[in-house]
Amino acid sequence: MDTAQLLLTTLGIAIVAFMVLAVLSGAWFGTWCGSGRHENDPGFPGAKPPL
Hints:
With 51 residues, the chain is an all-alpha fold.
C-alpha cells in the first residue's frame, strides 16, 4: 500500500468515525433536552431557546 492510498484510507476511517460520533452525540443531546434537563441553560450544547 503506497502513501496516498494509506492517507485516503485513514481519512475515510476518520470521516466515518466522526459521523458516527456526531450522530451518537446528537441523539444523546436530543434525549437529554427532550427530558427537560438544562433546557433553558444557554451554555448547554443543543439547548432549546426559551419559547
